[in-house]
Design a protein that fits this description.
By secondary structure, this protein is an alpha+beta fold. Among the domains are: 87 residues, no CATH class; 84 residues, no CATH class. A five-stranded mixed beta sheet has the order 2-3-4-1-5, covered by helices on one side. The two termini are 27 Å apart.
């Protein structure tokens, strides 16, 4: 279970989790799922149906790869994944060559309709799906599925267009600013990894909060132990399948 996972006692090993967007955070929980890890070991690389049906992925990904390097393609698309299609009859507008995309990039993933890529727009990185037949000199439109997440998709498209209007050269950024929710999920993952090694609740608390802080507050049935129990309970649910809620939040 600990193969490919960070040393759980070091809080700094989980700092990157604090800034992960939902689709990447979901991957951190799925890759800790024992059934998924077993499925990865026996999967057929050309079998996309099992990955999609059982795990919500277009393709299986090595669970040893954490979210800083992994490129999960979720099915259906998360609200922040933008589908770019030819803009019918448009002479003006944003051209595909205005985006910093490379269809031969290592993280490019094809499906039956096009290619998933990362587009660098200013200081932000966007996951886009470029339809087959869309050439660099073409103007593009953003297709929005009329599904339960249509409003979120429209809001993401608006942010993307706004980024294009203020774009400047920058480095790829896969993460957002750390926040309270991010810190919570980092603690949940750290607790899960500690429990997987057989660590006690108190040892997990020390790894998350520090020995001095825990020594002043720890009691067998106190609030701190209750918090660790909640981390483990919530983490177990996310690993078992609730990770999907993080993708589409």
């Amino acid at each position: 279970m600990t193969i490919g996972l960070p040393a759980w006692t070091r809080r700094e090993a989980f700092k990157y989790v604090e800034s992960l967007a939902g689709p990447l955070l979901a991957w951190e929980f799925l890759r800790r799922n024992p059934a998924y890890r077993n499925a990865w070991l026996v999967h057929d690389p050309v079998d996309t149906e099992t990955a999609r049906r059982d795990w919500g992925l277009l393709l299986f990904i090595d669970p040893a790869v954490d979210a800083r390097a992994a490129n999960p393609i979720w099915c259906p698309d998360p609200p922040t994944t933008l589908r770019l299609i030819p803009a019918t009859g448009a002479r003006d507008g944003i051209k595909l060559y205005d985006l910093d995309v490379d269809r031969s990039a290592p993280d490019a993933v094809r499906d039956e309709a096009g290619t998933y890529l990362t587009a660098i727009v200013g200081l932000n990185a966007w996951k886009v799906h470029i339809a087959d037949g869309l050439s660099p000199q073409d103007s593009f439109a953003i297709a929005i599925n009329a599904d339960a997440h249509a409003q979120q998709r429209a809001a993401a498209a608006e942010r993307f267009i706004r980024d294009l209007g203020h774009r400047s050269v920058g480095d790829k950024k896969r993460m957002s600013a750390p926040n309270r929710t991010g810190r919570f999920h980092a603690s949940v993952l750290q607790a899960l990894d500690g429990a997987a090694t057989g660590a006690s609740h108190q040892e997990i608390a020390v790894a998350i909060h520090g020995d001095k802080w825990v020594s002043r507050r720890w009691t067998p049935d106190g609030e701190l132990r209750a918090a660790i129990r909640y981390f483990l309970k919530r983490g177990a649910r996310l690993v078992a399948g609730d990770y999907r809620s993080l993708i589409y939040r």
